[in-house]
Amino acid sequence: MLKTVIKKNSYQDSINLMLLTNAINGMEGVKKCSIMMGTDANKDIFKNSGLLTEEANDASPSDMVIVIDAVNEDVFENALKESERFLNDLAVKSEKSSFETVNSFKSAQDKLPDANLALLSIPGEYGVDEIENALDQGLNVFSFTDNIPLAEEARLKRKAHEQGLLLMGADCGTGIISSTPLAFTNAVKPGNIGIVGASGTGIQEVTTIIDRLGGGVVHAIGTGGRDLSEEVGAITAKDALIGLEHHDPTDVIVFISKPPEKNVRDEIVELLHSLSKPAVAIFLGEKPDHHEGDVYLAHTLEETAKIAVDLAEGESVQRNYSKPLANDVDTELSKEKTVKGLYSGGTLAAEAGMLISDALDLGGLIKKEGYILKANGYEVMDLGDDIYTQGKPHPMIDPEVRTEKIKAYAEDKETGVILLDCVLGYGAHPDMAEALAPAIVEAKQTAEKDGRTLHFVATVCGTEQDPQGYEKSIRTLKQAGVLVEDSNEKAVRLALKLKGIDYQTNAKEQTDVNVEKVTLPTLSDNIEDLFNTKPRVINIGLKSFTESIIEHGGTTVQYNWKPAAGGNKKLIKVLNALMKLDDVEQGNRDVVEQMKNTQPFLVDVVPAKDVIEVLNDRVILHAGPPIEFKDMTGPMRGSCIGAVLFEGWAEDEDSALELLENGGVSFEPCHHHHAVGPMGGITSGNMPVLVVENKLDGTRAYCTLNEGIGKVLRFGAYSQEVVDRLQWMKDVLGPVLSQALKHKKGGLNLSVMIAKAITMGDEFHQRNIAASLNFLKEITPLIVKLDINEEDKYSVISFLADTDQFFLNIMMAAGKATVDTARKIQKGTVVTTMARNGRNFGVRISGMGDEWFTAPVNTPNGLYFTGYSESDANPDIGDSAITETIGVGGMAMIAAPGVTRFVGAGGFTDALDVSEEMNEICLANNSNWSIPTWDFKGACLGIDAQKVVQSGITPIINTGIAHKEPGIGQVGAGTVRAPLACFEKALLAYADKLGIAVD
Q1: Rg, C-alpha atoms of the chain
Q2: 242-276 pLDDT, tens per residue?
Q3: What is the CB-side half-sphere exposure of residue 551 using CA atoms within 13 A?
Q4: 642 and 717 in contact (C-beta within 8 Å)?
Q5: What molecular functions are annotated in GO for this chain (predicted)?
Q6: CA 393 to CA 802: how far, in whole Å?
Q7: Are residues 242 and 116 in the same domain?
Q8: 874 lies in which domain range?
């Protein structure tokens, strides 16, 4: 039974998902399982394993895809529960963490404004953009991320160099900055040795041996494995060496390299000779026979460490550092028996292959299908090679690949010795020795049953300070029957000794060298800061990488990265291009400033046809983007019937419907006429409208009056009761309010009312009671002194007192006046309109003026009145999302904890989470409308279409729920999300307008 579950927009890093996959695959009844993000590369892995279902193939890169082949439904459900438990455990650990967690790079910078390093561990296909962004923000970069094209790595490193920054990586697994371990690194004592290396187990082996010899390391700068290629030209290595030269606490410099290009090697050696400090260098694969002045050339990683410690302690460098082995063996395996190496570390594997090949004259190393050495039956494998890690965790984390290989080699009658490394440190398996031990014991028993002796030889790369414990790991391996040596070199020598070969490294003489020293450049301020302070890290990707930083005195903020734009490459290019345009950024600032400085005043209430010319004909305005009557959903159709009856264009429902269906009435959006309307938005000529003027520039906007609750026109009801109320509003409510406002010079200052009401618990969409009462407080004295009959005074004041939502329509008009002023600046990507017509959700952005961008509207989630359910609900409808457009409503959920449960947002914490999430997609906060329950932070302001598309976070809107059939009215209230597609379309159109080519 093959089943698929897609968790939309639910990003997890690959290592967590690999470990989860292994856990599910270990469950009884699960035939096969794979859990990965829905990237194209991962879909290939699903396909190769026979798990690419139709649903998985349709997933986006930001979707988590769970495919399980189980024996029955119960097993499948249990597997799903286990996956939820696993992921929930990750969330709990995150909640208990001592670091800040954010969802965007900008938020990370806000939390850690003095950050000097970005640590990336994200999928390689997104690495270039994120590395470049970090460099553009003035940060040094440590890129654990791999699979960066070589040409791009070279370009980015040149850029980093030109900006005075260090780019460590790509594929940089290990580093130490100011004695703080980064990524997969051991805990070593601080000291006066600085290291530059390809970053991996080479650095780990040297630093751990230094630690165990009593020395210490201040810096270990990883360069990535391709830095010494001809294409890159050792850019990072050179900058790092110069940095160590200028770093006063560094007394000895160590350089570790796999075989480099010859001309690049020569440049590095020339630079080493130009340093004022003694340097130790190892170029794996070379077997030097002398030292050159103050540049000491080592053959093995152990020798490298020992020379460095002697120099650091002021001791003389010895001619030969070979020491006796810890294990005294007299067994000599027969000629046909060979040595097999199963390494989790590439550099350790390379060293093992080099030594075995040299001892047996096997012709040197190869790099093929995961093999470092494969000759005459002797094999050394790098199980960290991409061929073994595609879709699987690295062997330092997960023992599965290695245990399978141990089993296979144990059954091979030619295998006499299996060589292993056991790498400890941050990020590695919590107890790799214990995880490997059962497979080792089983393998030895397999050989014994076949009358053979199988030897295991291992080295533990670690220190006693490592989380796993160095001595504990050694004891565990020894108990499993493993011969353990304290370095990889010695482990290889022991394996060779079991073959009767006593391999020794050669002695070296000290020789003078006459080299013209090059002039070294000065150090940039950024690199000097990196080398002389504890790292301040924006960690982008694996949360586990924060552990070592915090433990060793660094500071960090966790950016919970997920693919921008859901992994859509075209949109990512648009985002990257827009980010680089100062004109767009300035336009956004200007639009937001206009919105923030809004000065809306309620100045009048008039018949709609007096201020909207088109309404002097048989025209009805509706909510949302353009729509024809034939396409309208039930509530809007019902509202249109009610408007026709109210205007007297028809005598009854049937004739009204006939008029509407036969084109007797024309329709236009409210937004096309500086107007907005709640729910159906229906506005006809004789309906009274609020007139709000933005004193900033005189822009006016209009909205119908709130009818109260129950059966009302805005929700599609059109009974005689509804029409009678509309008539009273036209004849009494509107004129009374108009006369009252004429007694208030300049009108009522709405910004002041809004500022007061938001502190009293209003969010201005679902909850307006404080604002409505403030309005009543202001308008009542004006009404009382009018020279009109007392019954009209009383009915108007009573209606306002009973209508808790009356201010909603005032707020909508204020919002429309605000955005219509800001929309005059036609630059940038600020959202200036959000509206729904029951079919489509439409947005406008500042840079595209009046153009609509639409997508099918969603149906709200929420609570229903007794007798109704979700099956009765109409898709979302109305112009009231203008409140969210200016930063209140659902955007300010935290302001109205009293209403959160009614709109389906849960409790206070959930409301806080909503507003924090909405803040991620906004450009600013409106200090004019501060929210006490949000630590007096200003309401969100300036929804940015770029941020929406980048993050996949869409605005949340508080809304009423209308029955899908006309004439019934409101059946509940809740929240709804704007569809992402609107914002994507807007950005693509704006990019096209700006001439940005993205195909």
Answers
A1: 35
A2: 999 999 999 999 999 988 889 999 999 999 999 99
A3: 17
A4: yes
A5: succinate-CoA ligase (ADP-forming) activity; succinate-CoA ligase (GDP-forming) activity
A6: 63
A7: yes
A8: 831-993
